Amino acid sequence: VEMALQLLETQRPFRKSRTLVEAHLGKHGTQRSKAINELFEAYGIPRICENVERKLKRKRLLREIEILVERRHAIAHDGDLDSHGKLADLKGTWVRNRILDLQKLVTTADEILQNQLS
Description:
Blueprint: H1 2-9, H2 13-27, H3 33-41, H4 48-56, H5 61-78, H6 92-117
Helix pairs in contact: 4-6, 5-6
């Protein structure tokens, strides 16, 4: 309530509220299955990531994508260097397979959402 009253006192309350939401979401990562599940639970769709795994009959799908995200972080934040300062090895087939896994996750999640919302 206090925040709402403060917004009313500002010249541009909609801009201020948008800035606050963007700042919160900017810190709230949605690259982990737990965060994705929490996001969709707010819309009444529980455990969407596990449902995707079950529908695809892939018990390690979420872990494979988590490994991809961890590798992306290593590339973006550490320059993809190993503990000795050398460039880490990256196989094209590994990347391709993880990207295909990610595509399957997104496509299947979309199917589940369409079924839930229809």
